[in-house]
Every structure is written in C-alpha cells, then in structure tokens.
C-alpha cells in the first residue's frame, strides 16, 4: 500500500516554527504525536480530537491548509492516514507541504513500502525518523539519503 | 501482512515463573483484537497492572520492554505517569536499547512542569560528554524537546562544545538544540552567537540549514544581533546564488530544485535582515530577481521557493520593478491548477492590495474568476480581494460579476457580499439610477442579509434623486408585485409607493416600459403586505402609512383606505393600533389637514436622526391636530397678506416644497421634524410686544452644528388680572427663508404671572439673508378679542449672520 499525500501545518509560538506533528488515521487513532510545545495531557487530547474533526471533513475539493485556532494546520492524506503539521499563520505553506512529503518518502524507504501497520508496530522507530528530520520544531535534515543512512546506523546498534 | 515486523529486541527472554509479560508486538496485537472500546480498555488496564508490578519489582532486563508497552498505551490516550521514574533508570543504564526507550519516554512523559525532569540533567550531561555519537544524538534530541530553562542553563557548555565537533551528524543536532535553548533562556544568545559566522562557511547542507535557523532565531530576539548579522548578507546572497545556479549536492534536490528548504530558510533570513534597511535590501535585489525568474515552477517545491521569494520582495525595500515582478508571480499562481497555490496567492494579494494597488489591478479578471472556487476559504478570499479592487473605472463591470456571484454564493458569504456591494456602490456609483438599480438588485437577491441601514440609505437616495422618482417607484412596484417576502425591499417599496403613488399611476416614464397600474391594484398590493404573515411589524407600519399617504395622492375616493385603517384600530400590535387610530382621527376630525400632513417629505439630512420618519411625523401630526385650531379661509388670506409685505413666495424648487397647493395655507405650521435640543447660545432675548400686561418675548438659539438654523422661542406671559385665552401666534418670514412652527405649549396664560405659553419657531436661513419677522397674535383678554399684527424690529444681527 502506497501512502498518498497529506499535508499539515505546524503552529509556531514565540519563534517556534512547528508546534506539533500528528499522524492520525481516519478513525481518529493517533499513530504519532510529537509535541514541540508544552501542553497538558488533557490539552493534548483535546487538540488531537479537534484536529481530527477539522481535517477529516475535508476532501479533494479543499486546499491542504486549514485555519485552526490562531494557527494553521498543513495536512496531507495518504491512504487512511492524515499527516498534520501545525505552524504559525505566517509560515510558508508550500514549504511545509514539501516537508511532509519528504518525511513520508523517508518512511516509505525505511519500512519498504510502508503501511499503517508498520507505523503501529514500530511506533518508537517512527519517532526516531521524526527526530532525524525535525528537531526543536525546525526542519533538520532534508536529504533523504542522509537520513536513511543515519537510521540504518542506529538500527544496527540494537 | 506486508512489510517486516522488527522486534523490539531479538534476544529470547528467560521465562518467568509468574505470568510472562507480553512482548510489545503481542500487546499491540491484543489491543487491536479488541472489538469494542470497553474491551480495549480492559486489556490495557490488565497490562498496565502488570507493568506497574514489574516496575515495583525492579526488573532491569525487561524494563525497556515494559516502558515501550507503556508508551504505546500512552499514545492511544491512556495515563502513563507511573512510568516517569522508569525513564530515568533506563536513561542511566549503559545499554543503547535501554537509553533509546528511556529517552523516548522522557520526551513523551516528562515535561518541565514535573519536578522529576530535572533528574535527568545529570544523565544527559554524562551522555553528552562521554557517550557514543548515537547516544549523544539521543541526548541532544531529548534536551531540545523537553529541556526546561534550568536544564538549558546547566547544559549550555556541553552543547557549545558539540557545535565545534567534526562530526556533522552531531553538529546539526547541536545547532538546533542551541535554537531551543535560546528560546528558553534568551541570555544564552551570547554563548551561541560567536560560532555562527564560522558555521556559515560550512558546505554541509544540514549544518547550513541549522545555522541559518539559529541566526534567524538570534536576529528575531535581539536588535543588536540583527545589526551584527547584517554583515553576512553578502555571504548569504552568495550561498543562495550558488544553490540556484549550480547546486551543492544532488542528494538534496527535490523535484529538480536544489534543496528548497535551505533556499526558503535563507530567503526568510534575508527578509528579516533586509527589512527597513536600504543597504541590505539593495544587495539582495539582483539575487531575488534571479531566483524569481530561474526557479522551476512545474512542481510544488519550486513554487514554495518562489512564494518565499515573493514574500521577501514585498517586505524589504525593493525596487519598483521587482515588486511588480512579485505581484505578477502571484498573478500567475492564481492561474495554477493546484488549489493550494491559488490559496497562497490570494492570501498574499490581499495583503498587498493596499500598498501595490495598481499592480494587483492588472490581475483583476483572474481574481474574479476565482469567485467560482468550490473551497469556501478560497472564494471568501477572492470576494474580499474583488471588493478591494473595485474603483471608479471598473465599477460597472465588477458589480455585474459580484451581483452574479451574490445570486449563487454560499449562504455564509452572502451577508459580506451584499454589504460589500452596497458599500462599493455608494463609493463609486457612476449615476444615481445605476446606484438605485444596484441596491434594488441586492435587495431582491439577498434582502434578508443586508444590514439594517440599507433601507434608510435607499430611501435617502431615492428621495434625493427627484428625477428618478417615477422610475424608482415603478421598479419597486414591479419588484413588490413579484415578491413580498424580502423585508427590506418591501419596506422601501411601501415607502416609495406611498410617497410617489401619483407618479406610479401616471403611466409614462421614459426609462422603463409603460406600465398601466390602476389604483385598486396598488391598494390591493399594500393590503396584501399588511396582511401577510411574512411581514415584520415595522414593515406593516410602513404599509399602513403608505396607504394613508395614498389617500391624498390618488384620485378615487378613499373608502377602501378608510376601511383598512379602521380595521387596524383594533389591531393587537400596539404600534399599528396607534397609527391606525391617529390616521382614522385624521379622516374624521381633521380631514382638512390631511393633505398638509401627508405631503411629500422633505429630504432628510444624512446626519439627522435616523428614526422612522413616518412614526415621528404622524405622532407630531396627531399632537398638533389636538392643539392647533383649523385655519379658516380668512386667516389663510391674511397670512398671504403677511407674506406680501415681505416677499412673495412661490415655493422653493430645491426641496420638495413645504408650500404645496393645499387648503392649509401658504405656510406650513403643522409639519414638524424632530430636532435636537438646542444648545445654549449667547444671543440676547428680545421683548417684542406688550399690551395690558401681556408680554411677548423672543429668545434666539443658533445650534453650532447647523449654522443655517435659527431657533426662536416665543414666550407669552401675563401679569395682568385677567386670563388670556385662545392665544394663537402666527409668523411670516421672507421668501428666501423657511419657517416651521412647532405646537405651542398651550393657548391659555393664566392671570397674575401664570404659566406662560412657549412656542418654538425653526427658521432655515442657508443664504444668510437678513432676518425679518412678522407676527400676528390673536387672543381673548378681559372678554375682548385682541388681534395684533406687527413686524419685529431690532432683531439681533447674530440671529442671521
């Protein structure tokens, strides 16, 4: 199963670019939640539910950008998964769209034609991939080759 | 199942005597096997109990697996705080597997609000200084995700050291960790600023990306840093230029664009550095033009770079030609088939429309096309932008488009569209007729969505366009005949038909098809409005008053109208009932005054009270009909004599004249308009008459906000021994002035200083002509009938200058 495109926007706060990254499926189950900003547990739950509600009602007729609270969400849907990044309203939507796709392509390579179940059973590895590509709410490494090399290196240590 | 499953660890575990703990994979399978939410909860609670027991027993071998399971459960939304201490233990362990899960746990479960988080500081410190690279990487990552201010302060030296390490893997992480630390502890900027310039010389993309992000962060936080980094603008320009022309490495190229992320980041930094700084802006101009023209726009990556370039051009002091180029790029985006790109283009154009109006105007046709978008956020932006682009030269074409849009637009945009059209029409209407047509169209299409003052505005507009009265009333009649549900339209139509009903029946109007309307049809229509359950109370009020006015405009007898009016005397709605009673009284007792009261209204001043003119007018008329006696023919002719002595007046063509052919006489002393309470003014009072203890005084007030207006209050006092009864005061002024009398406070002045009578005269003197005033008094005093006619002398000059 190939993952198709999804886009999500990250929110920025006080100079922070990305507020959080979420991967959710259509039913609302979280497959990955990376927070670059401090939230309470119940706030996190609420955000997850809100993002799910906002994003799942949209279809191909809509853009990949959603105004959300006082931020923006850039999302992209790949098969049954929504990849959402939350950013500041002034950020470059198109660039983050590329970032999402970059990330998904790396996942694809790493898991060899990735599907949702791969993300489920290897959730901690997905976090590793995220941490290789994004750090402190910023884009860290954009070369897919480099990231994959690093991931394989880490894997060999286990 | 496609794909391989990678197990958490490949070693087999010794079997425990007590229930064996599940492997992570098995737990996941079990959870997924649960059919209902309740079942899932049960499975998870059972497992959490096991995990808790295991933590209590302290099993170092399986700890990481337990924590991993706990983290998975946490991701599904279940509480996992009891695993916090375990994270610490795992981080402190020497095995990579342990550390890995431990750090992940720390990132997910610990944050700076828990005191426990400080405990990992030491472990991180150790790992940063002595660990192997991957471990250092883990530590940096964790620090940058959940590091609190204290932790950052403690660990800054370690991170700084790692910045200068040879390994790019670690340096990338260290740089971005530094970004996080600066956000938490701004004072650390001084630590991380010096290495930046050196780091810019790197060729490694990841390091460059991180460095630029770091510099951006530093500049955003401190103006001193901003100044410092302006020096590197040429260097940044060089880096970007090389990227665009030759590219550093193919592995960073995305869709043929070399490292778009790095380009975007550099452009953003250039924007911050060039803002409000001539010199830096100039250095960038050529480069920006180059990027703008050379970037491949067939894929999203290129468009992302182009978009960032446009944002930068608009923000700095760029050459005019460059700005036009930027706007044109946005215009091209509007034609792109990718919806996302159209979205960013519309958003940016909206920001630019004020500052670069003419450049954006060129793309007006494309913007108007975007009104047809299916995505609501796009069509909304297109609407805002279209409204902003309306000007006097394109107003007709634009209004056509916008009105077409209004007919088919989604409901939540209707109100904005309607009010936008009305506003634009007000500002740019080429002719009054066009304006009236436009408003009519809006009212017919989206009547329920217009703002409340639309009705008042339209009546004001129509009232002022005397040449269009016939046209307006016809069009409104037609519209009303078709549909009586849109309240604003019905109200305006009713008002118009009432005012200009005579023109409606005339049959000829050059601008519109001849329409044969007979009186019965008009009355029937108004009655229909009155009776319809769709009509609001205010609307019915309009209709009733219109019917009443028609009683003087139409030729036929008024039986039908009288019938309707008397039916509504017992209406349950108090407002309608009151009107009906007043109108009925007009028919019965004051029929001779009916025409005067129901004359065409003078033009309401825009700044004047916005209240329903109908209600006030009829209320005043009702009051007056109690107070003022009926003028007889002789009095009317005597008033004319008064006028003769001044200047013969034949009616003012400027406003719908208050002097209309009617039995009421040449002067209108019944018609009233509400006026604001007069502010104090220092014109001295004037005693104008005295006879046997009866005295008449004039006091003058000129309201500052209306220099053409003069308010005179006459006060009649009685110091004699006999009462004064049936006191009437009438007045006349020269032709160029307009006079209106309000009802006197009474017509009796009791003897010996009893309560005086006061009456207010309103005189409009726009040409500042010299004021002359002639008064005629009649009253009974000492059983004698007294009549006095005289001209007031010594009128103070301030009263008319």
UniProtKB/TrEMBL annotation, chain A:
GO molecular function: clathrin adaptor activity
Domain AP complex mu/sigma subunit per the UniProt entry, residue ranges: 18-157
BP GO annotations: clathrin-dependent endocytosis; intracellular protein transport; synaptic vesicle endocytosis
Stored Pfam families: Clat_adaptor_s
Membrane topology: Peripheral membrane protein
Compartmental location: Cell membrane; Membrane, Coated pit
Main subcellular location of this protein, as a coarse class: membrane
Entry similarity comment: Belongs to the adaptor complexes small subunit family.
Complexes and interactors: Adaptor protein complex 2 (AP-2) is a heterotetramer composed of two large adaptins (alpha-type subunit AP2A1 or AP2A2 and beta-type subunit AP2B1), a medium adaptin (mu-type subunit AP2M1) and a small adaptin (sigma-type subunit AP2S1). Interacts with CCDC32; the interaction is direct and mediates association of CCDC32 with adaptor protein complex 2 (AP-2).
Name of the protein: AP complex subunit sigma
Provenance organism: Papio anubis
Gene that specifies this protein: AP2S1
């Amino acid at each position: 199963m190939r993952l198709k495109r999804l886009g999500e926007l990250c929110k920025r706060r006080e100079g922070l670019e990305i507020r959080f990254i979420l991967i959710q499926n259509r039913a609302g189950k979280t497959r990955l939640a990376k927070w670059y900003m401090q939230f309470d547990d119940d706030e996190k739950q609420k955000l997850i539910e809100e993002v799910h509600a906002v994003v799942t009602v949209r279809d191909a007729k809509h853009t990949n950008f959603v105004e959300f609270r006082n931020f923006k969400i850039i999302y992209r849907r790949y098969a049954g998964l929504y990849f959402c990044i939350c950013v500041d309203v002034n950020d470059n939507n198109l660039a983050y769209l590329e970032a999402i796709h970059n990330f998904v392509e790396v996942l694809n390579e790493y898991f060899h034609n990735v599907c949702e179940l791969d993300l489920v059973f290897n959730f901690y590895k997905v976090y590793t991939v995220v941490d290789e590509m994004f750090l402190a709410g910023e884009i860290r490494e954009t070369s897919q080759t480099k990231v994959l090399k690093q991931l394989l290196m880490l894997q060999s240590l286990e | 199942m496609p794909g391989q499953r990678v197990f958490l660890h490949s070693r087999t575990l010794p079997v425990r005597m007590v229930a064996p703990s599940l492997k992570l994979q098995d737990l996941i399978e079990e959870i997924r096997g649960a059919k209902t939410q309740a079942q899932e909860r049960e499975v998870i609670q059972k497992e959490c109990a096991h995990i808790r027991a295991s933590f209590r027993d302290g099993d170092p071998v399986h700890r990481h697996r337990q924590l991993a399971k706990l983290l998975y459960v946490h991701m599904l939304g279940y509480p996992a705080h009891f695993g916090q201490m375990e994270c610490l233990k795992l981080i402190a362990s020497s095995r990579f597997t342990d550390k890995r899960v431990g750090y992940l746990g720390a990132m997910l479960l610990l944050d700076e609000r828990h005191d426990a988080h400080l405990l990992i500081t030491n472990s991180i410190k150790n790992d940063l200084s002595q660990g192997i690279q991957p471990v250092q990487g883990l530590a940096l990552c964790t620090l940058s995700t959940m590091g609190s201010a204290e932790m950052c302060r403690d660990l800054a030296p370690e991170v700084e050291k790692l910045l200068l390490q040879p390994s790019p893997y670690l340096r990338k992480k260290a740089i971005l960790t530094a970004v996080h630390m600066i956000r938490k502890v701004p004072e650390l900027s001084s630590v991380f600023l010096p290495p930046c310039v050196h780091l810019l010389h790197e060729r490694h993309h990841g390091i460059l990306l991180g460095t630029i992000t770091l510099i951006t962060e530093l500049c955003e936080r401190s103006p001193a840093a901003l100044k410092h980094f302006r020096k590197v603008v040429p260097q940044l320009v060089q880096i970007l230029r090389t990227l665009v022309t030759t590219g550093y490495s193919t592995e960073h190229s995305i869709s043929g664009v070399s490292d778009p992320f790095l380009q975007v980041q550099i452009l953003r930094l250039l924007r911050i550095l060039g803002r409000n700084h001539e010199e830096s802006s100039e250095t960038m101009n050529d480069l920006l033009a180059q990027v703008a023209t050379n970037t491949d726009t067939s894929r999203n990556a290129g468009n992302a770079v182009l978009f960032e370039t446009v944002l930068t051009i608009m923000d700095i002091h760029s050459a005019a030609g460059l700005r036009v180029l930027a706007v044109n790029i946005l215009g091209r985006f509007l034609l792109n088939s990718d919806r996302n790109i159209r979205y960013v283009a519309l958003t940016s154009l909206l920001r630019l429309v004020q500052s670069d109006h003419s450049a954006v105007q060129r793309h007006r046709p494309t913007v108007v096309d975007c009104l047809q978008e299916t995505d609501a956020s796009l069509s909304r932006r297109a609407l805002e932008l279209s409204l902003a682009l309306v000007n006097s030269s394109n107003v007709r074409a634009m209004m056509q488009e916008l009105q077409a849009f209004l007919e088919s637009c989604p409901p939540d945009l209707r109100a904005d569209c309607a009010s936008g059209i009305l506003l634009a029409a007000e500002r740019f209407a080429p002719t009054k007729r066009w304006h009236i047509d436009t408003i009519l169209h809006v009212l017919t299409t989206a009547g329920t969505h217009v703002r409340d003052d639309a009705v008042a505005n339209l009546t004001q507009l129509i009232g002022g366009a005397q040449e269009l009265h016939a046209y307006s009333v016809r069009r409104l009649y037609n519209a009303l005949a078709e549909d009586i549900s849109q309240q604003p339209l019905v109200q305006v139509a009713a008002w118009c038909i009432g005012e200009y009903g005579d023109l409606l029946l005339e049959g000829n109007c050059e601008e519109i098809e001849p329409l044969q309307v007979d009186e019965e049809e008009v009355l029937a229509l108004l009655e229909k409005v009155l009776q319809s359950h769709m009509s609001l109370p205010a609307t019915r009020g309009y209709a009733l008053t219109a019917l009443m006015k028609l009683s003087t405009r139409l030729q036929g007898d008024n039986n039908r109208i009288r019938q309707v009016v008397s039916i509504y005397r017992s209406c349950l709605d108090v407002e309608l009932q009151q009107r009906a009673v007043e109108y009925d009284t007009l028919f019965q007792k004051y029929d001779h005054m009916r025409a005067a009261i129901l004359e065409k209204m003078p033009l309401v001043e825009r700044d004047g009270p916005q209240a329903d003119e109908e209600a006030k007018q009829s209320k005043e008329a009702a009051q007056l009909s109690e107070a003022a006696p009926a003028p007889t023919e002789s009095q009317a002719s005597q008033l004319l004599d008064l006028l003769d002595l001044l200047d013969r007046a034949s009616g003012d063509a400027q406003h719908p004249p208050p002097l209309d052919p009617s039995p009421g006489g040449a002067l209108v002393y019944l018609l009233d308009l509400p006026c604001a309470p007069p502010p104090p003014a220092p014109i001295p009072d004037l005693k104008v008459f005295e006879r046997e203890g009866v005295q008449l005084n004039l006091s003058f007030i000129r309201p500052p906000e209306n220099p053409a207006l003069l308010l005179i209050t006459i006060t009649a006092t009685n110091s004699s021994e006999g009462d004064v009864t049936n006191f009437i005061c009438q007045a006349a002024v020269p032709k160029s002035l307009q006079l209106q009398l309000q009802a006197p406070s009474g017509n009796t002045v009791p003897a010996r200083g009893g309560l005086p009578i006061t009456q207010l005269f309103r005189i409009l003197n726009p040409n500042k002509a010299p004021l002359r005033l002639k008064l005629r008094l009649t009253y009974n005093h000492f059983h004698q009938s007294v009549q006095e006619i005289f001209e007031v002398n010594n009128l103070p000059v301030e009263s008319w200058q």
